[in-house]
């Protein structure tokens, strides 16, 4: 896949161990969070909706049916492939191909979703930590774009599989 991230500087943020899975330290400033959300929802075809699976206030990135051609493990629920948590948290949950999951964890940008660790949901489900500055917003957008391409069927699954709500 040729996906490589820089190493995230500093210690890992603190997160909760169960639902709701939240980041509780090293959160984004309101300005950085707003920048990330603005840029995240600029991806083509993406519909901005309340998350179908996350906490109140989380905003989902959803693909219209004609563009949701990825494998089942590229989606959380329906055609939602990622969501951004509210500003007090700032992290995101997204679905990534397994090589990108390994890179995300190895370089300190995120962690497996607790339900994925338990085997209840696909191992493709991860938390990406909240960006702390504009440079980290760029890294988060690379992760989000990888999730977007996975959901579109452009990574690891070239055969179209249409999912319907």
From TrEMBL:
Membrane-spanning ranges: none
Highest rank taxon of the organism: Bacteria
Domain Luciferase: 78-145
Pfam hit, one: Luciferase
InterPro entries given in the database record: Luciferase, Luciferase_dom
Region annotated Disordered, chain positions: 1-30
Annotated protein name in UniProt: Luciferase family protein
Organism annotation: Plastorhodobacter daqingensis
């Amino acid at each position: 896949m040729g996906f490589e991230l820089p190493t995230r500087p500093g210690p890992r943020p603190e997160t909760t161990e169960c639902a709701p899975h939240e980041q509780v330290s090293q959160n984004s400033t309101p300005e950085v969070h707003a920048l990330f959300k603005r840029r995240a929802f600029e991806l083509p075809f993406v519909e901005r909706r309340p998350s179908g699976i996350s906490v109140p206030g989380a905003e989902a990135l959803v693909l219209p049916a004609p563009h949701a051609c990825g494998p089942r493990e590229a989606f959380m629920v329906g055609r939602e492939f990622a969501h951004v948590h509210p500003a007090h948290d700032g992290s995101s949950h997204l679905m990534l191909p397994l090589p990108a999951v390994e890179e995300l964890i190895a370089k300190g940008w995120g962690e497996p979703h607790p339900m994925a660790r338990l085997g209840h949901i696909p191992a493709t489900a991860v938390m990406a930590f909240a960006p702390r500055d504009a440079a980290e917003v760029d890294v988060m957008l690379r992760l989000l774009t990888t999730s977007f391409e996975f959901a579109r069927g452009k990574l690891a699954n070239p055969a179209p599989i249409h999912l319907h709500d």
